[in-house]
Amino acid sequence: MLKPKHSGFYSTTLHVLLVHLGVTRLVLTGFAANLCVLYTANDAYMRDYKIVVPPDCVASEKRSDTRLALEHMKRFLKAELVPGEKVEFSSRRGRRASI
Questions:
Q1: What is the DSSP string of the chain?
Q2: In CA terms, which of 40, 61, 62, 85 is 20 to 30 Å from 96?
Q3: Can you tell me the distance from the alpha carbon of 76 to that of 97, in angstroms, rounded to the nearest whole number?
Q4: Structural domains present in the chain
Q5: How far is CA 74 from CA 4, 13, 23, 54, 79, in A?
Q6: How far apart, in whole angstroms, are the C-alpha atoms of residue 59 and residue 37?
Q7: Rounded CA gap, 14 and 33, in Å?
Q8: How confident is the model at residue 94 (pLDDT cuts 50, 70, 90)?
Q9: What is the pTM of this model?
Q10: pLDDT tens across 8-29, in order?
Q11: Which of 98, 69, 66 has the alpha carbon at shortest distance from 84?
Q12: What is the distance of C-alpha 55 from the center of its chain?
């Protein structure tokens, strides 16, 4: 899937795919926490997804930009900030597996 702008949702079929798969919670990671991760988190929030962002799995060019983006996602987008090693995933059968 091509991502033409900062958000993974903008002009993509991501939301349609996630609805089809029954996804309600997203774990967002990547570079440009203050741009791509933040804008994808914002669009996910607007679509009522629960958002998890592992602070140790995102980065920006400046640490201060990462910190501000994480604070914004937590405060305004209700993102759960959980270390990467503590993130748990549920399988379709209800079992939980952590990474």
A1: ----SSSSSTTSSHHHHHHHHT--EEE--EE-IIIIIHHHHHHHHHTT-EEEE-GGGEE-SSHHHHHHHHHHHHHHS--EE--GGG-EEE-TTS-EEE-
A2: 40
A3: 28
A4: 23-98 (3.40.50.850)
A5: 26, 26, 20, 11, 5
A6: 9
A7: 19
A8: low
A9: 0.88
A10: 999 999 999 999 999 999 999 9
A11: 98
A12: 11
Whether 12 contacts 36, CB under 8 Å: no
List pLDDT tens digits, range 27-42: 999 999 999 999 999 9
What is the rounded CA–CA span in Å between residue 45 and residue 79? Answer: 9
Reading the block at residue 98, the tokens are: 């952590």
